[in-house]
Specification:
Four copies of one chain form a homotetramer. With 144 residues, the first copy, chain A, is an alpha+beta fold. Chain A is built from two helices and eight strands. Chain A has helices at 8-18, 58-77; strands spanning 29-35, 38-43, 50-51, 55-56, 84-92, 101-110, 114-123, 131-138. Strand 5 of chain C pairs antiparallel with strand 5 of chain D, so a sheet runs across the interface.
């Protein structure tokens, strides 16, 4: 496996630059591991993520899946902030607990224009995943 | 086509009750039309929804697609606040402009336990859709 | 809506040329309507398509969905036999009867390199769809 | 991990019983490994699976993905021949070569009524996958 195109710290800086209102110290999101095309992102538990039934809302998990893929894309193709999701397919498997969410994103294809991968989301302390997503990102500046 | 199980006003009240911090007067989301299994939701344009490249972020559109399906589910099966997404598959087709987003959700199956439909999202003033989603909701209290 | 890039007869001839062992007079597949990006394909009922429970097999419907998209791609971009599926997502909604299957494919995006559409499959004589698919095709020769 | 509910030989016998015209000695499909919710199926290369561009057709890979999931379902829930696909989402990643296809199916959720898993398809002799699918099966007799 090659070295990641950007380190965890470089990606965290890039994310803060791109989304200053979303990613900042204390925002509750952290990059726990960044290898080439294989990353782990943690989303700290917050009461505001809950929905009826006391479970974390679907959109909060979709956003986390999309975010983890974005980090994985950076880990493989480097500084491409205009990379955009073209497809995301998510299946919700179990109710997450009142705990941090951990998202493992792993790329299965790194093409010049398209990157495809899967994201498995866990609720901290449980072995079985709470959600599983697949996603394709497009790299708009691939031809530059 | 049968009458909707709940009217637009009844669904808006229910949503405010379920998600008081998300759905309230002036929040920028409105239910424009509610027929049985066929609804239109409008998301007012806000600068905070933008991402690099000046386009509305993917998660904002995922959230809107999921929300429109939730409204469509209520229009068909009535007051089931614990209905949960089990699958959402979204394709991003074009960059939305700096304009309101309009989501048309239409159910293709209303089963006792599972509801399936599609959501087409438009950027106001443009004819071609910006995103298209399909989604399955599960009705947990179906057996009650 | 523009005229289709190829007529139903031209597409049928092209399909026979590409897949002589699959598409030929009497094979059970017919193109019932070809408009620009909007086509109807009929698959004649055959006992060999059945699976346990007496219903048409999933793969037979996947193949039909993929085939109807292929026809829709030709209707919009013309003679591109090397167009390939990059994604197909299919949901099975109801058990089809012992009847012909009718697939309506409709394109939502016709890009230079990617074409996206949806396919709704009906069992003849029933109003509610038996399956619904979305699919992306890639046009490999787009740059030629 | 528990023992599989059925062995490879028991599943092969069951498949032959269910689909005598598809699964039989010499048909080109073999079950290479059957663990609980984790199986490998091999599809022997045949010229008839090819499509324009000299690559294995999409529907042949969809069928293989669906078949591998079916085997994985049996490995976890036992003799349930009426289990049916409710969703299959497949992404085609690379052109397979003129070689056997190997499908690894792995279940991520084994519920009472719904089983969810992913299938990764390889072309023999290549490290990177040619296709990746996720799928949900429904177990109709779950209540018996």
């Amino acid at each position: 496996m090659p070295a990641p195109a950007l380190t965890a710290d470089e990606i965290a800086d890039l994310l803060h630059e791109i989304f200053p209102q979303v990613v900042y110290p204390g925002c509750g999101i952290s990059l726990e591991r960044v290898d080439y095309g294989d990353v782990r992102v943690r989303r700290q538990f917050q009461e505001t993520l809950l929905r009826p039934g006391g479970t974390v809302s679907g959109p909060a998990m979709m956003q986390l899946a999309d975010f983890a893929m974005y980090v994985a894309v950076f880990s493989a193709v480097g500084r491409q902030p205009e990379a955009v999701t073209t497809n995301l397919n998510i299946n919700f498997l179990r109710k997450p607990g009142h705990a941090d969410l951990i998202a493992d994103a792993r790329l299965l294809k790194v093409g010049r224009r398209l990157v495809y991968g899967e994201v498995t989301i866990y609720s901290e302390g449980e072995g079985a995943p709470v959600a599983h997503a697949t996603s394709t990102y497009s790299i708009p500046n691939a031809d530059n």
